[in-house]
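YM 10:42: Phosphoglycerate kinase sequence, as discussed on the call
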Amino acid sequence: MTSHTLNELIAEGVRGRYILVRSDLNVPLDGSTVTDDGRIKASLPVLKKLSDAGARVLVTAHLGRPKGTPEEKYSLKPAAARLAELADFKVQLAEDTVGESAKALAAALQDGEVLILENVRFDARETSKDDAERGSFADELVALTGDNGAFVDDAFGAVHRKHASVYDVATRLPAYLGDLVHTEVEVLRKLTTDTQRPYVVVLGGSKVSDKLAVIDNLLGKADTILVGGGMLFTFLAAAGHKVAGSLLEEDQIPVVQDYLKRAADAGTSFVIPTDVVVASKFAADAEHEVVKADAIEESSFGKSGIGLDIGPESASAFAAQIEGAKTVFWNGPMGVFEFEAFSGGTRAIAQALTDTVAFTVVGGGDSAAAVRTLGFEDSQFGHISTGGGASLEYLEGKELPGLSVLDR
Ligand SMILES: Nc1ncnc2c1ncn2[C@@H]1O[C@H](COP(=O)(O)OP(=O)(O)O)[C@@H](O)[C@H]1O
Ligand SMILES: O=C(OP(=O)(O)O)[C@H](O)COP(=O)(O)O
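YM 10:58: structure's back
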């Protein structure tokens, strides 16, 4: 990659210039409380560097997956407030993204100050598949930077998204690679160019179809794929088992069946859970029991049971695979770790990663949040990446739009 770096931009001089920075402030919330501020802390150094150099910084970011219109629960208010608490420079939040509030606050911005624009996904054009629609939104973002602006992409977690604030703005402004993206890419590049085997990939979480898609290219690259979290139920269904009310993407069953068929020839083996923690409802205080993975509907909760974690037998089997690995990449919690009763699988995997001598990488907003919430320290892992889907797609060898657009 031969992108221009933030240091080059700073050396060119940024005092008084409007610099548009894409950050990943997609943090987990409990109401209006940020439950893990890892991504905010990871975003701060670039903002500080630009602020110290006298730039007028406009930050774009998304939170969650709103449907293209403003929704209070997806507001960046809590994230902006936490950033302001941690920062030693002035941070404000606009009430909109490219509307009157953003324009007025941007115009009044002083050197060294930071203005966060409200969730870019409150505008449907941000994620549109139509180039012209995304382009018109990018034009409005770029217009906020006046006639001497520049763009810095520091949102590693979103580099796999061909979205207006990630991709299209970079085609309209002089564009630079932020330090966070740079560091993340360096670690992952090392992992891909010098992979020590056995290479074990642990997959979980709730973005089932996103994560299933990456398995295609991991076949043949990973020696073993451990399947937990929400996607495990699509694997069980693909093997002909009933999964009651658990998370299931039925249209993905043929995809999984195809993976299972190709795995042996590709030299990759899947480890699918043999037991599951099934709950009466999706709640912290739900009744729950451990059942065999092929008998989920036979739990006391029948067809309404929901699988919310891998069982202890599966957690031990996964831990044994991790113990024998030389490289481990983990994305996606094994269960609904936010509820104590369903955090056992995620805790066991985190523990196994801290016990192994393998080089370990944990990727993803919720995965990073999980290990911290469960009491582990960042220093117990080889690298904690701010991007889950992004790091998975990088490891697959896929072209990432947010990176390739910076390539010159
Ligand atoms: N069995 C399950 N059913 C429903 N949700 C699950 C299950 N297992 C894990 N999850 C949820 O997955 C979420 C994280 O998914 P995801 O966003 O894909 O991970 P990451 O941010 O690490 O990439 C967590 O909030 C967790 O509660
Ligand atoms: O949380 C994120 O990704 P991750 O859950 O894969 O780590 C990023 O902020 C990207 O969000 P998106 O998957 O809604 O585009």
